[in-house]
């Protein structure tokens, strides 16, 4: 992308908009947050929100929770985090980092690079709806990126580096020419790594006085296994956008294999990662933790019958219910790892 002499943002990684001839200049009197562009054919305007409301919507708060939870699991696994830590400055800064800052930055990047797809699937999102201009989106992304790296560095210098890696992953996922979300498995895997392994290990590093690859190995294994499950969960999120994905050539599992087969693949991945995590607990000699983790798979398995029968109508309900058991298993594993630390 580049700016021309009149400061209009030029984007080179997408084909020209088919409505470009009917659309006024993005910055001609309608630039900025909260100022609405004229509605054109095929575009639905965003809801009228305050500037703060628009920014919050741009940051997608619903996506913050998994990353914040993964950090918490890592902190618990460290063996140095207790209830009193929940009110500590480090933990509050970490929640700010893993929620609105780092995860919010990645969501804004995704919205920025996916604005053509959102015109099909979610035309009321802030950018395709015209509520936030490309120039303002660019400024917000740059500011949030800097704040995220600073917050990460304040927690631990290595976490500042992890934040940079996460932002790079967001570009690899969303931006052309790589755009991993077009490449079947690659997109879900890189998101799962960024949502689970990176924040989990960051949480452990934040609270361990000293660490090594050996001391982090149990967390790496468990987080890796739950990343396998999370890859399946990411597939369920793709059912809602199957038409738009097919139109623009994004090769998600539902777009490539169809809804039913994709639901079966997702269910197998979700269960496999958790069963393997239970098996790893057995290897560590933590039988009761293994039993609990295995038992938490059962309600998910039962819910998957409905998901496979009707993926498009059951996806939201499945995630709303089944995800609770999956994340509970993550925390159980974190407490299990905690017991192995001296």
In short:
The chain has 342 residues and is mostly helical. The chain has helices spanning 51-59, 64-77, 89-113, 115-121, 134-155, 157-174, 185-207, 213-237, 242-248, 253-257, 259-283, 287-295, 297-309, 311-340; strands spanning 2-3, 9-10.
Helix content: 55-70%
Uncertain segments are 1-32, 34-46
Order of strands, widest sheet: 1-2
Overall 3D shape = globular
Number of helices: 14
Question: How far is it from the N-terminal to the C-terminal residue, by CA?
Answer: 51 Å
- Annotation, overall tally of beta strands: 2
Mean pLDDT: 85
Measured on Cα atoms, how large is the radius of gyration? 21 Å
Structural class comes to mainly alpha
Order of helices and strands: EEHHHHHHHHHHHHHH
How many structural domains? 1
Largest sheet: 2 strands, antiparallel
How would you sum up this structure, described in words?
- The chain is an all-alpha fold and 342 residues long.
- It has one domain (61-123, 131-340).
- 68% of the residues lie in helices and 1% in strands.
- It is built from 14 helices and two strands, in the order ββαααααααααααααα.
- It has helices at 51-59, 64-77, 89-113, 115-121, 134-155, 157-174, 185-207, 213-237, 242-248, 253-257, 259-283, 287-295, 297-309, 311-340; strands at residues 2-3, 9-10.
- A two-stranded antiparallel ribbon has the order 1-2.
- A hairpin with a 5-residue loop joins strand 1 (2-3) and strand 2 (9-10).
- Helix 3 runs parallel beside helix 6 (157-174) and helix 8 (213-237) packs antiparallel against helix 14 (311-340).
- The relative contact order is 0.11.
- Mean pLDDT is 85; it is low at 1-32 and 34-46.
């Amino acid at each position: 992308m580049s700016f021309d002499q009149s400061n209009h943002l030029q984007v080179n990684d997408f084909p020209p908009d088919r409505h470009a001839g009917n659309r006024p200049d993005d910055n001609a009197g309608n630039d900025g947050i909260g100022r609405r562009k004229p509605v054109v054919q095929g575009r639905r305007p965003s809801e009228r929100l305050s500037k703060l409301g628009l920014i919050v919507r741009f940051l997608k708060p619903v996506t913050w929770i998994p990353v914040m939870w993964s950090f918490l699991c890592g902190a618990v696994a460290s063996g140095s985090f207790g209830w009193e830590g929940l009110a500590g400055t480090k933990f509050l800064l970490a929640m700010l980092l893993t929620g609105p800052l780092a995860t919010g930055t990645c969501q804004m990047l995704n919205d920025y690079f996916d604005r053509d797809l959102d015109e099909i699937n979610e035309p009321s999102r802030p950018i395709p709806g015209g509520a936030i201009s490309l120039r303002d989106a660019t400024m917000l992304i740059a500011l949030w990126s800097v704040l995220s790296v600073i917050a990460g560095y304040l927690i631990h210098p290595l976490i500042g580096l992890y934040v940079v890696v996460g932002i790079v992953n967001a570009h690899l996922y969303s931006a052309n020419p790589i755009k991993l979300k077009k490449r079947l498995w690659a997109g879900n895997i890189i998101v799962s790594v960024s949502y689970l392994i990176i924040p989990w290990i960051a949480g452990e590093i934040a609270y361990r006085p000293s660490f090594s690859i050996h001391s982090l190995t149990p967390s790496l294994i468990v987080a890796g296994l739950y990343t396998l499950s999370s890859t399946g969960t990411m597939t369920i999120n793709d059912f809602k956008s199957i038409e738009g994905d097919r139109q623009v050539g994004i090769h998600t599992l539902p777009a490539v294999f169809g809804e039913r087969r994709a639901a079966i693949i997702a269910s197998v991945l979700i269960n496999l990662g958790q069963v393997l995590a239970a098996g790893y607990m057995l290897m560590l000699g933590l039988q009761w933790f293994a039993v609990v983790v295995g038992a938490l798979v059962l309600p998910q398995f039962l819910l998957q019958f409905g998901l496979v029968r009707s993926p498009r109508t059951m996806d939201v309900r499945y995630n709303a219910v089944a995800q609770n058991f999956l994340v509970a298993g993550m925390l159980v594993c974190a407490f299990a790892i905690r017991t192995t630390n001296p």
